[in-house]
């Protein structure tokens, strides 16, 4: 194996990601070294590049978290994970490793903790595999953030409903897929061109978020269906006020819970007897590792093996390899709809 590899390196905050060489690391006892074949891009990647948010603790930095590739080497403690040569999906983030640039996704060889590495089914390409890690982790963390264990399985008789606002986004599509696993009746919003996709993923009803009467449309549908809507996930900006307007009409006297994945500003709208929580995983290392195991090994891996979980949303492939990541991030920053940008490496 090469002693050096190519990486997209960020020299300082607001700098250009440019191709350079890094020493190829050895995996720690519980780590996997992955030869990266494809990376997917997320808004937090350009936030980190341009603004240093979430915090970038070490410069020069290697950003990114979403990879699919081939196992190159295993840590000394590992026997149960796929061995060298196996195709895998991995969450490889320097943010969770105190900024260690050996762990960022945007390089040819990256380290990932074993809890966040699972087999990539033969039926999926590396480009399809790369779309899962951060979006799945974010979507499933939303449920545990508001006290819904991932083992929850509501029956139709429970009449438990959920509102997912922003369901055609990358996180939104996995919010829908996971809500289906949990047994919720799903009411979702998306642009009309994405309604079929969101329904196919498991939504019971999908509404155009730009419609002037979207709030009353959703309230009417919930009341007609006779379900209990006390839970919501605001995936995107601008969703909180209409979500609270809906819950006000559907929750009755019951307490309600809203999880907010976009930045939650001070002075945000509120509603009586309604808990509004920013979506963020535990920063306690033991709790975080256990949560990752539940997300990747407990939910994503069996879901992929059975075909119950599928790649989403639509994939837009950008060329140029690691040298093209900077320009691809600019495209993402410029705005995409119902699309995940993936760069083959």
TrEMBL record:
Limits of the Enoyl reductase (ER) domain: 15-343
Q: In its keyword annotation, does this UniProt entry include Oxidoreductase?
A: yes
Q: Which residues form the signal peptide?
A: none
InterPro entries, per this entry? ADH-like_C, ADH-like_N, ER, GroES-like_sf, NAD(P)-bd_dom_sf, Trans-enoyl_RdTase-like
Q: Name one Pfam family in it.
A: ADH_N
Q: Which CDD domains match?
A: enoyl_reductase_like
SMART domains to which the protein is assigned, alphabetical: PKS_ER
Q: Does the keyword Acyltransferase apply?
A: no
Q: Which UniProt keywords apply?
A: Oxidoreductase
Can you name this protein? Alcohol dehydrogenase GroES-like domain protein
Recorded source organism is Aspergillus sclerotialis
């Amino acid at each position: 194996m090469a002693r050096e590899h190519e990486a997209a390196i960020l020299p300082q905050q607001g700098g250009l990601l440019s191709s350079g060489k890094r020493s190829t690391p050895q995996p720690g006892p519980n780590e996997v070294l992955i030869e990266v074949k494809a990376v997917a891009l997320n808004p937090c990647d350009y936030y980190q590049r341009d603004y240093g948010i979430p915090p970038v603790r070490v410069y020069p930095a290697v950003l990114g978290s979403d990879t699919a590739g081939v196992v190159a080497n295993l840590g000394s403690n590992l026997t149960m994970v796929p061995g060298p040569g196996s195709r895998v999906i991995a969450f490889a983030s320097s943010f969770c490793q105190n900024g260690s640039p050996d762990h960022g996704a945007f390089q040819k060889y990256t380290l990932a903790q074993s809890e966040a590495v699972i087999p990539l089914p033969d039926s999926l390409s590396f480009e399809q595999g790369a779309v899962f890690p951060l979006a799945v982790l974010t979507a499933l963390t939303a449920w545990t953030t508001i006290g819904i264990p991932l083992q929850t399985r509501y029956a139709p008789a429970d009449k438990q409903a959920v509102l997912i606002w922003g369901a055609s986004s990358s996180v939104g599509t996995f919010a829908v897929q996971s809500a289906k696993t949990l047994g919720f009746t799903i009411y979702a919003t998306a642009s009309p061109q994405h309604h079929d996709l969101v329904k196919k993923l498991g939504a019971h009803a999908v509404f155009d978020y730009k419609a002037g009467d979207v709030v009353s449309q959703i309230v009417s549908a919930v009341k007609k269906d006779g379900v209990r809507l006390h839970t919501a996930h605001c995936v995107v900006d601008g969703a909180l006020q209409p979500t609270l307007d809906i819950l006000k009409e559907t929750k009755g006297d019951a307490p309600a819970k809203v999880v907010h994945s976009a930045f939650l500003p001070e002075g945000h709208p509120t509603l009586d007897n309604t808990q509004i929580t920013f979506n963020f995983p535990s920063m306690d290392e033991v709790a975080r590792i256990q949560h990752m195991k539940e997300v990747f090994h407990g939910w994503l891996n069996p879901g992929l093996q059975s075909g119950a979980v599928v790649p989403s949303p639509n994939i837009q492939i950008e060329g140029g390899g690691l040298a093209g990541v900077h320009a691809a991030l600019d495209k993402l920053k410029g705005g995409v709809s119902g699309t995940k940008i993936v760069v083959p490496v």
